[in-house]
Amino acid sequence: MGVSERLWSLGKLNHVAIAVPNLESATALYRDVMGAKVSEVTPLPEHGVYTVFVELGNTKLELLHPLGEKSPIEGFLKKNTAGGIHHICIEVDNITEAVKQLTSSEVRALNPEPKIGAHGKPVVFLHPKDCNGVLLELEEA
Amino acid sequence: MGVSERLWSLGKLNHVAIAVPNLESATALYRDVMGAKVSEVTPLPEHGVYTVFVELGNTKLELLHPLGEKSPIEGFLKKNTAGGIHHICIEVDNITEAVKQLTSSEVRALNPEPKIGAHGKPVVFLHPKDCNGVLLELEEA
Fold first, then answer.
1. I want to staple B133 with a disulfide (CB 3.0 to 4.6 A). Which of A27, A82, B78, B129 is the partner?
2. Chain B contact set for A55 (CB, 8 A)
3. Is B82's CB within 8 Å of A129's CB?
4. Do the domain assignments include residue B48?
5. ipTM of the complex in this document
6. Torsion on CA atoms B118, B121, B126, B131, rounded to nearest 10
């Protein structure tokens, strides 16, 4: 009890995720027109997306395109037919403590129990209504 | 003519701009709940916004709130009442060449002539319809 101790810290911006209706033309924009280094297309069937990473030096853009019938970005692309920023991902050093403190501060987690994310690390998504309309992913770095 | 030369490069992600309906509660989320270092509220009357910067180590979030009657984020907040990601800003080393090449590749600029942005540097906004639904700001670093 007494003085509250901070048991976790926020780290770097890991990525900005952009849902795109056409993965090839989106990749071409960043690679051919803007000259960025981009990854190969990586299918992640267990997450329902194809991904392409765009390197920006200090962080990356993650282009997402639906894979399979129940992709988590299907609904987003129906509403945003041109595509759009789907979420941002910030690193934390202790995701269990982060979720504990956030939920006690009335910031809801969409999955209170961390799950393994697209990079093989534990992640939690926070409710956009509690984060100024932003879907915020926390990833244990 | 002949081999085309690349006369500019894409650099770091300078910031992710988030439009927020309540600047105090948005700042409190990042400062008090998440423990991030945040700036004072800075009014930028010539840009029609109040800003607060959230430091993330490798980049920053820029919280935006309308200032004055003709704020450029007023319409966005009417559509997105909870707030949301308004744009991302990527650095370039030569904004004039960047705009020249982008427009010749049919990526439209909202202001083809660079203007002085919120950080006192030349910026150009690219048309979201040509960038996968993302409002993309280029800033000469």
1. A82
2. none
3. yes
4. yes
5. 0.95
6. -90
